[in-house]
From TrEMBL:
UniProt key word Coiled coil: yes
InterPro entries on file: HTH_MarR-typ, MarR/SlyA-like, Transc_reg_Sar_Rot_HTH, WH-like_DNA-bd_sf, WH_DNA-bd_sf
GO BP terms: response to stress
Annotated PROSITE patterns: HTH_MARR_2
Coiled-coil regions listed: 117-144
Keyword list, A-Z: Coiled coil, Cytoplasm, DNA-binding, Transcription, Transcription regulation
Pfam families to which the protein is assigned, alphabetical: Staph_reg_Sar_Rot (PF22381)
Domain HTH marR-type: residue ranges: 1-129
Subcellular location: Cytoplasm
A GO-annotated cellular component: cytoplasm
Protein name as annotated: MarR family transcriptional regulator
């Protein structure tokens, strides 16, 4: 089944990431947060959750640990106290210098060239979008029957 193949591939990726991330002292979910911050510098928790497809209940402990390490800061908006902004610190930016070769190491480990990796990524993003739409329709249909 496709779901088993995808699950196995996901676990294999996570297992391969582990030694690389151990070198820089991050877990895989923490690394994902930092990737967004390295790219954008500053985001709201809501934007971060959208980028990573994680809810704030999942993000909060990750952000708390990363802030304790001095890699990011969280500040509550003065205009909307429900909104929290997350910004990478100088230490967080410095960590990028240690982490920046990880994506290339992962591409190399796939045994695929960059074009093949990009094509697979696009296919998986399309599949994810299609499955999310299908799940939303199923949920809506279930709710209208209730």
């Amino acid at each position: 089944m496709l779901c088993f193949a995808l699950h196995s591939a996901s676990r294999a990726f996570t297992n391969l990431y582990r030694p690389f991330l151990d070198e820089i002292g991050l877990t895989y979910p923490q690394y994902l947060v930092m990737l967004v911050l390295w790219e954008r510098e500053s985001v709201t928790v809501k934007e971060l959750g959208g980028a990573l497809r994680l809810d704030s209940g999942t993000l909060s402990p990750l952000l708390k640990r990363l802030q304790a390490r001095g890699l990011l800061v969280r500040t509550r908006s003065e205009t909307d106290e429900r909104s929290v902004r997350v910004e990478v610190t100088d230490d967080g930016r410095a960590l990028w210098q240690q982490a920046r070769d990880i994506p290339q190491r992962m591409v190399t480990a796939t045994g695929m060239d960059l074009g093949e990796v990009e094509e697979l990524r696009a296919t998986l993003e399309n599949l994810t979008s299609t499955l999310n739409d299908a799940a939303r329709r199923v949920t809506e249909n279930r709710e209208t029957r209730s």
